[in-house]
Structures are given as structure tokens and as C-alpha cells.
Amino acid sequence: MKKRRLAVFAVAGAAALASVAVATPSMAASSKSPITIAWMTTLSGPYAQPSVNNDMKLATNQINSQGGIDGHKVQFVAYDANLTPQQAVTATQKALGSKPTAFIGYSVDDQIQATAQVLKQSGIPVLAVAQGPAASSNAVHVPNLYTVVPNLVSAIQASSTYAYSKFHPKSVGIFHTDDTASNADASTAQALLKKQGVRNFTVRSASDQATDTTQQALAMKGDDVVFEFGFPIVEANFNTALSQNGISVPIQGDQTGNFLAAYGLNKPAELTKYAFTPYCYSAVLPTKQAKAYSAAYTAAYPGQSLQTSTPYVYDAVELLGAAIKADGGNVSSSAITKELSKISYNGVCGPYHADANHELMHQVAMVSYANGINPGELAAIFHEGPVPASYFKS
User: Fold this and answer.
1) Interatomic CA distance for residues 229 and 4, integer angstroms
2) 314 within 8 A of 280, measured Cβ to Cβ
3) Can you tell me whether residue 242 is helix, strand or coil?
4) Are residues 106 and 157 located together in one domain of the fold?
5) Cα 294 from Cα 282, distance rounded (Å)
6) Helix or strand holding residue 35 (H, E)
7) Are residues 163 and 266 in the same domain?
8) Residues 244 and 296 in one domain
């Protein structure tokens, strides 16, 4: 059903990165075996980025500086799962050879589906960043799989609710790249908007490698709001086409919106009516956890924008640590999986707890670039259940 959810992104032409083992700072000698995380990410191709390991480094360095997890040093190895199912299978098989304590990553739904059986057989806990319902634990029947980013349907529901309540559109344009995930995104958005009262839609698509989206943009003339779902470079091209053709209406983007600004894929003037639902963007969140993370990230990586950070990856490492500590330092796969099902944890991106689908995050933020992009502003927060008021106290 779902093909891709990009959790990391860099402008086309970024230098390819080789699969690497990343060492963490040395600790005092310990007889306890290290906790090894298999980091399944994108290290090559146009969607790789030089900062891909930043949050893994930040989290493991902080944990190790405090003595590790119950005395266990934490280390990670980055594997190039890239964005295709086959690359994910190859990387997973390679990672299993090192007997990792846990997997973190897999940003594409089809990758979860392709590796489901081998992950299930391994029993090793997986903290995934693929967003679609086809990648959830129940969908692929992998009881050791948990999702750390907001559910895709929840994100689209937040976006459609925000747009309808703010702009009351009578006609909505929907642009999407022509891939499985984005096709489903567009259908979901249209169905939700119909329930809210929208009756007129203009739906157009382009390939995930399209370089000219002028005709699709022109078709949106007369629409009150435009939604877009797809691959970042194509979305950026579409935003430019809207601007160049004098179409200045509110744009509702998806989770890649922060990267459009961070990598200069769109000019500020093209995004002044743009709002989006990031996986997590710490710069606009008001919590003490988000502020502490933002300060730590900025100190560790001076000059690098928080718009390119991946705090949900940082949270995934911390969640793993919290699960191990909850069972007195037990690092067995069964113990970690069991504790993740019971965990309640306040992280950078919000409060985490597992539901029946093993989805841990139930909060979606709407971020607007109306203030001139940097850093953006928090427009609204949507959540499936009550968020404790104390969580938002600095």
C-alpha cells in the first residue's frame, strides 16, 4: 500500500557515503558487552546527506558519557539500506551477521514489508521511521517492530483539519508524485477533506523524477488550497511552478517541508504560505526536552541547521535505553520488545507510548513558514489522546 516515507534527505548530488562503523567515545573498562545498534539508513544516492549519522552520534555519545546503559557501552553501525526494498534486504542480512541488539531506521514502507519475515525470525527489536500503515507491526505481522514517527493517516488528518478550519476551502488542489505511497496519501487527503465538506478537487500527479510540473501547477488555478505529497525535489519544483505562474494560495506540505528550506530547494518567497507536518522539528517545540536537544545539537554540530536534524532518531536511541533500564539492564531481544510495549517516555518529539499497532508517537505538529522560514513557527499540535499539560512546561 505504501512505498516510501523519507526520513532523511539531502539535495541531489550530495556526496555518497560508504557503509561505515561509527565508534563512540571510549569509556572506562567494563566487562559488560556493548549494546550495538544496526542503523538502517541512506548512505548513497541523491537522498543521502553528510549529516545522516549526527543524531545517532549525539545520542550514543551522551549515553556513553554518563556510563552507558546499565554499564553497557552503546555503539552503532550504519548500513546503506537506501530507499529500495532489495537494498534493505541486503543491508539487513549484512547487519544480522553482527548480531545487533536492535535495529533503528528503515525509512520506506516497502523496505519494512520486504524485510518483515527475516526481522520477525530474528526477534531483534526494530524501531522504525517508516510512517505508513502498511509498515506497522500488525500489518506486517512482526511483533518486535515499533514505529517512532507519527502515523501517516494521523499526519494527513492533522493537515486537512488545519487547512479546512483555517481557510474553509471550497475547492482543493492535490499534487502528488506517482508512486504507491504518494498515490495513497492523495486518496487519503481527498477522503478526509470530503468528510469535512470539500466537494471540488483538482488532482494531478508527476513522476518521482519529474523536472517540469508547470502543467500540474496551472491546473490548480482557482483552487483555494493546495496539498502536496511526494518526493522532496519534485515538490520543490512544483512550488516554484506555482509561484512562477502567479498561484499564491496556502500550500499544505508533508513531512519533507523543513528540508525544502534547509537545502534552499525553494526561495523564501515561494514558501510564505506553506505549512507542513514534519516528523519532528525541535526548533519550534516548546518543551524542555526539545530545547535541551536543540542546544545540544547546535553545540555538537555548529553551523548545521536544525531543519536537517532527525530528533526522532535521537529519541529512538533513548527509547531503546529506557526499555533496557526498565528491565534492570536486560539486553535480550524478548525483554526489550516486552518493555517497548509498556513504555511511557517523554522525548524530544513528544510523549511516546505503544498502541495496539506498536506505534509509539501519537502527536503531530503543524509548522508554518509565514514568518519567513527560519526557524518557522508552531501553528498547531494535534494528538490522538490527551497529552499531559506538565509535558509542555519548560
Assistant:
1) 11
2) no
3) helix
4) no
5) 6
6) strand 35-41
7) yes
8) no
In a domain, 6, yes or no: no
pLDDT of residue 54: 97
Q: Report phi then psi at 295, rounded to 5.
A: -65, -40
Angle separating helix axes 311-326 and 54-65, nearest 10 degrees:
40
Residue 5 belongs to some domain of the structure: no
Instruction: Give the pLDDT confidence score for residue 258 in this predicted structure.
Output: 83
| DSSP secondary structure code for residue 12 in this structure | T
Contact between 261 and 374 (Cβ < 8 Å): yes
From CA 191, how far away is CA 195, in angstroms rounded? 6
Shared domain for 253 and 333, answered yes or no, is no
Tell me how far the alpha carbon of residue 157 is from its chain's centroid: 17
Q: How confident is the model over 138-181, as pLDDT tens digits? A: 999 999 999 999 988 889 999 999 999 999 999 999 999 987 77
100: preceding bond cis by omega (within 30 degrees): no
Q: How far apart are CA 357 and CA 324, in angstroms?
A: 21
Instruction: Specify whether the CB–CB gap between 199 and 170 falls below 8 A.
Output: yes
The pTM (predicted TM-score) of the whole model is 0.87
Same domain, 53 and 197: no
Which structural domain range is residue 37 located in?
Answer: 20-150+286-361
Number of domains in the chain: 2
Please report, for the domain that includes residue 38, its CATH number.
Answer: 3.40.50.2300
Are 371 and 357 in a shared domain? no
Helix (H, G, I), strand (E, B) or coil at 173: strand
373 domain-assigned: yes
User: How far is residue 194's CA from residue 188's CA, in Å, rounded to a whole number?
Assistant: 10
Handedness of CA 107, 109, 110, 113 (dihedral sign): positive
State residue 22's pLDDT score: 52
* pLDDT for the residue 31: 64
Nearest residue to 63 (alpha-carbon basis) of 78, 76, 49: 76
Q: Is residue 299 part of a domain?
A: yes
Is 123 in contact with 337 (CB distance < 8 Å)?
yes
Looking at the fold, whether 248 and 165 belong to one and the same domain comes out as yes
- The three-state secondary structure class of 49 is coil
Q: Same domain for 273 and 167?
A: yes
Q: Which residues contact 203 (CB under 8 A, 6 or more apart)?
A: 173, 174, 175, 176, 186, 190
Q: For the chain, list residues with pLDDT below 50.
A: 1-19, 21, 23-29, 386-394
